[in-house]
Automatic annotation (TrEMBL), chains A, B:
This is Glutamate racemase. Pathway: Cell wall biogenesis; peptidoglycan biosynthesis. It comes from Paramuribaculum intestinale. GO terms for biological process: cell wall organization; peptidoglycan biosynthetic process; regulation of cell shape. Substrate binds at D18, S19, Y50, G51, N82, T83, T201, H202. Its EC number is 5.1.1.3. The active site is at C81 (proton donor/acceptor), C200 (proton donor/acceptor).
C-alpha cells in the first residue's frame, strides 16, 4: 500500500471540540452511545467563551481548532458547541475542508438538533434558548425552515447563563432571576410554543430551574442524547468513515488553558475527574 | 542625528491596554487629568475576559499586547487591567522589557492603587474586591505589605460582576444578589476594615449598588482617578519619558474584536460613541 492509500485508510480518534467545558455534556452522551471508539476532546478554554464573539473571531478560532484536531489524526470532528456550529461550520465545510482534506468530516450540533425537535413538536412552534452568537446567527431558524417549511422558531439569547454555570452559580438563588428573565421573555405572547431546546451545551446544568419555570405542557430538550443518536446514525450510513474511527474506548482531554483548571471545572460537567493536557492551537 | 538617537528621542502616543472594555474607565480619568497627550487604547476583546484565566495565559496575551503597542510607537504603556497588572506586569518589566527596549516603560494599576489606599485607611485594614485572577495572585497583599508593613488586606473575588456589567445588568435587580454575596463575604468578621478598593476596572459601573451595601463609615474607592493622578506624578518625575509622550490630544481605539461591537459596549463605559479599528495582535 502506498503512502497516499495508507493515509486514506488510516484511522484516528473522533475529535470533539468546544470553546470551553460545555461540550463535555455532549461528549458524555456520545461516549455512552458509542463507547467503542477513541476520542480526543479539545476545549479552547484560554479563549472561551465564544458566545458573545463576532462571526470573524468564532470562525478563525474554530478553524484553528479543526486544523489542530486533524493534525492529531482525527478524521471526524464534532463541533460540540452551538456558537461554533452556527458561525463557523458552514464556511469550514464549504471553503476550508475541500482544501485541507476532502476525505475528512466536520459535523455540528445544530442540524441534528433541528431534525429532532422538528419531529417532537406538535404545534410546529419551537423555542430556542442560546448564546447571543447562536441566536443572532439565526442558524436554528434556517435549519428548521429547510427541514420543516412553515414551522415557526422563537429564540431568546441568555448571555448570563454561561457565566452562572462556569462560576458554579447554576444551583444558587442568584440564577433564578436570570432563568425567570430569559424564559419569561421567550414564552411571552408565544402560547403555541410546545418544545424548547437548550441550544447551548452549558444550559443542561440549569435544567432543573428552567424546567420549573416552563409550564408542564411544554417539552424542554437537551442536546446531548440527540447529537449522540445522530452520530450513531451517521456512522451507520457512512461505513467508510466508521472504519476510520479508531476503536479502543479511550478519551484524551486537551485544553488551551492550564490543565488543573480544566480538571476542576471538568468535574462539574462530567461528575468525574479527568486529566487534561495543555496545548497551543493558534 | 543618527537613526539610533532619532529612535531614542522619538515620541509616540501613550498606550492604554485592557483585556476588554473596563480599561476605558481608567482611560477616561487619564484623559481628563492629562488631555494634552495622544493616546491609543487597545482592548483584547476577542480573548476577554482575562479575570478567570491562568497566569501563563494572561502573561502570554499581555506580552503580545505590549509588543503590539510598542510596534505602534508607544514609549509608555499603561496596563489598565488589574488581572494583567497582577499576573504579567512584573515578568514583563523584569524579563521582557530589558530585551525588547530598556528605554520604554510598562506601568500597572496595582502599585499606585496600593499607595493611595494605604494613605486613606485609618485602621490599616483594607478590603479588595477583584477578579479571581487578581485576588489569587495576592498582588495587592504584597504591594501593601511592601509599602505599609503591618497593614492588613482582606480580599474577595467577585467573578459574576464582569459578566453582569458586560451584559448591561449592572443596574438590574439580578445584580443585587451578587453584590450582596461578595460584599457580605468581604465584610463578615472584618469589623476593622475601613477602606474598600474596587480592584477591577469594570466594577465602577456597579458603584451605586456596592455603595448602598457597604456601611457608611467605610470608604469605597474607584481606581480611575488614582491611576490618573499617579501617571501625572510619574511624568512630572520623569521628564525624559514625558518628552517622548506625543502631544496632540487625540485618542485612537483598537480592538481585537469586531469594531461595531466595541462601539456598542464602549458607549456604556465612556458615555460617548467611539470609532474603533480591528487589529490582530497574536
Amino acid at each position: 500500500m502506498d503512502a497516499v492509500n495508507e493515509e486514506r485508510y488510516a484511522s484516528g480518534p473522533i475529535g470533539v471540540f468546544d470553546s470551553g467545558y460545555g461540550g463535555l455534556t455532549i461528549l458524555k452522551e456520545i461516549r455512552r452511545a458509542l463507547p467503542q471508539y477513541d476520542y480526543v476532546y479539545l476545549g479552547d478554554n484560554a479563549r472561551a467563551p465564544y458566545g458573545p464573539r463576532s462571526f470573524d473571531i468564532v470562525y478563525r478560532f474554530t478553524l484553528e481548532a479543526v486544523r489542530f484536531l486533524f493534525a492529531r489524526g482525527c478524521r471526524l470532528v464534532i463541533l460540540a458547541c452551538n456558537t461554533a456550529s452556527a458561525k463557523a461550520l458552514r464556511t469550514i465545510q464549504q471553503n476550508d475542508l475541500p482544501q485541507i482534506d476532502p476525505s475528512r468530516r466536520v459535523l455540528g450540533v445544530i442540524r441534528p438538533t433541528a431534525e429532532s425537535i422538528g419531529r417532537l413538536t406538535k404545534t410546529g412552534h419551537i423555542g430556542v434558548l442560546g448564546t447571543v452568537g447562536t441566536v443572532s446567527s439565526q442558524s436554528y431558524d434556517m435549519e428548521v425552515e429547510k427541514l420543516y417549511p412553515g414551522y415557526r422558531v422563537t429564540s431568546e439569547a441568555c448571555p448570563m447563563w454561561v457565566p452562572l454555570v462556569e462560576n458554579l452559580e447554576a444551583d444558587g438563588d442568584g440564577a433564578d432571576y436570570f432563568v425567570d428573565k430569559y424564559v419569561g421573555r421567550l414564552l411571552e405572547g408565544n402560547e403555541t410554543l410546545d418544545t424548547i431546546v437548550l441550544a447551548c451545551t452549558h444550559y443542561p446544568l440549569l435544567y432543573g430551574k428552567i424546567r420549573r419555570r416552563v409550564p408542564e405542557g411544554i417539552r424542554v430538550v437537551c442536546q446531548g442524547e440527540i447529537v449522540a443518536e445522530s452520530l450513531k446514525d451517521y456512522l451507520g450510513r457512512h461505513p467508510e468513515m466508521e472504519r476510520r474511527c479508531r476503536r479502543g474506548g479511550t478519551c484524551e482531554y486537551l485544553t488551551t488553558e492550564n490543565p488543573e483548571k480544566f480538571t476542576g471545572l471538568g468535574r462539574v460537567f462530567l461528575n468525574e475527574d479527568v486529566i487534561a493536557t495543555h496545548v497551543d492551537i493558534d
